[in-house]
Inverse folding.
């Protein structure tokens, strides 16, 4: 007998409940990945994520080959491809991780009805893509938590399963057709600083992080130039790393850094449980504030300057250039540029979220859309009118200006915190720096935002 494992956002062999169950159940298993037409059509397969995905698939194929198997890769409609494999092998079951987004939920429904017609069982496994499954903890009277702190309390108390070891042997039936596993070398237009992906890379990064990085995380997570966060987000996004395992291993460390790190991993689950319960929040305001954002045409020049990192606010430009170069941005940078776009320039959060998704390697519907909404004040922030001042924030989180000088080399002649306010230089000195004037007076932007929110 044969079982099928459909890999989606869980590209690993360690701690993989669907794979384990499929192997336990049948003598032979087809590990399947489908390059899904609908994801391509939705513009989600961007160069940076496609490159990282190719690394993950290559690594997964290698890990399966080490165990006597291989990865089967197909392209097309995911349900059609699963059904084709089921028909060709006579498989009696399909195992898949429970998804979160509206798209993933729809895929599950379509799979269920197509497989029922074939008398093939569908097993959906929880706590694969998140550490705690969406819906596993809920407040009284609601299907999800809308506020983080009470969620965190319940999430921390919630029993979590122990991580599973990787299987030793995977037997794949003969004759199942596969395309070549995609290679990063074939993906054009990838940003130069996109890191390497794959399970081995993810695991060694987690080990190194827990050994020598995490202890400084409580103090250092907002240090822009120090870059003292884990950078595990792309590995978690593609599931090359299990969130259950990350939480489990970090929780064994008894220090404030590890505690703070586990709390961030809970933020990831928090946004996933919001999206699972409210899939429309990927596009629509979670809380309708009746904002009348400036139209994209009206704000076109400001939006272009923001995207290209030439707003004249050095820390904003530094962060946007980091995004363009690495396909990643420090969390403090994300907060600052998102606050700047929505509250200082008064542009719709969806414009920023779309740009982020185009470039981020970790670009993720749950984390991206809901963090954008959090900053814009249309989401779960309990202080929706809070505005981050880019100059004060830059002085606090980049006190010596090193982050700015690294990403905005035009300003490298400016010492210390002076790099954050080039407009304060005497005119003749200012003229020596080929760097734009600020797009607007911060106070004017803030006044516009306050007026608009007061009216709403
Ligand atoms: P660390 O600080 O080391 O944190 C560890 C892990 O915790 C991260 O890898 C991530 O999985 C999780 N995490 C940390 N902060 C958050 C958070 N605020 N929300 C959810 N999970 C979190 N994260 C994404 O993974 N994908 C996105 O598309 C994304 N878009 C964002 C957009 C905006 C506007 C903002 C403000 C934040 C966004 N984040 C997103 C959250 C956060 O910025 C990144 O997860 C983090 O910067 C990744 O770097 P790291 O792995 O070094 O994080």
């Amino acid at each position: 007998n044969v079982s099928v494992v459909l890999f989606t956002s869980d590209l690993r062999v360690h701690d993989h409940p669907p794979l384990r169950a499929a192997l336990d159940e049948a003598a032979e298993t087809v590990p399947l990945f489908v390059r899904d037409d609908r994801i391509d059509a939705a513009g989600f397969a961007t160069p940076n994520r496609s490159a990282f995905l190719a690394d993950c698939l290559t690594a997964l194929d290698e890990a399966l080959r080490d165990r006597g198997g291989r990865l089967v890769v197909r392209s097309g409609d995911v349900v059609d491809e699963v059904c084709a494999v089921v028909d060709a092998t006579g498989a009696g079951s399909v195992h898949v991780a429970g998804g979160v987004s509206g798209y993933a939920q729809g895929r599950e429904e379509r799979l269920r009805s197509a497989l029922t017609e074939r008398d093939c069982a569908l097993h959906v496994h929880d706590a694969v893509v998140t550490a705690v499954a969406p819906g596993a903890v809920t407040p009284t009277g609601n299907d999800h938590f809308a506020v983080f702190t009470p969620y965190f309390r319940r999430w921390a108390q919630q029993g979590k399963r122990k991580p599973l070891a990787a299987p030793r042997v995977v037997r794949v039936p003969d004759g199942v057709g596969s395309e070549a596993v995609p290679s990063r070398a074939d993906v054009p237009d990838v940003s130069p600083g996109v890191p390497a992906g794959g399970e081995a890379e993810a695991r060694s990064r987690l080990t190194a992080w827990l050994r020598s990085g995490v202890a400084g995380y409580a103090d250092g997570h907002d240090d822009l130039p120090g870059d003292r966060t884990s950078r595990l987000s792309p590995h978690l996004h593609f599931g090359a790393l299990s969130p259950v395992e990350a939480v489990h291993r970090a929780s064994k460390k008894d220090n404030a850094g590890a505690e703070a790190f586990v709390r961030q991993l809970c933020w990831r689950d928090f946004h996933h449980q919001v999206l699972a319960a409210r899939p429309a929040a990927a596009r629509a305001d979670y809380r309708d504030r009746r904002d009348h954002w400036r139209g994209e045409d009206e704000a076109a020049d400001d939006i272009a300057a923001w995207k290209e990192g030439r707003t004249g606010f050095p820390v904003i430009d530094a962060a946007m250039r980091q995004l363009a170069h690495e396909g990643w941005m420090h969390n403090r940078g994300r907060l600052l540029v998102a606050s700047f776009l929505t509250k200082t320039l008064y542009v719709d959060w969806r414009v920023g979220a779309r740009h982020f998704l185009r470039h981020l390697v970790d670009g993720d519907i749950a984390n991206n859309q809901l963090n954008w909404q959090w900053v814009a004040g249309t989401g779960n922030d309990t202080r929706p009118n809070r505005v981050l001042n880019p100059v004060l924030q830059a002085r606090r989180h980049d006190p010596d200006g090193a982050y700015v000088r690294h990403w905005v080399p035009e300003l490298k002649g400016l010492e210390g915190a002076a790099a954050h306010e080039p407009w304060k230089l005497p005119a003749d000195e200012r003229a020596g720096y080929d760097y734009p004037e600020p797009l607007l007076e911060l106070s004017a932007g803030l006044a516009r935002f306050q007026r608009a929110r007061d009216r709403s």
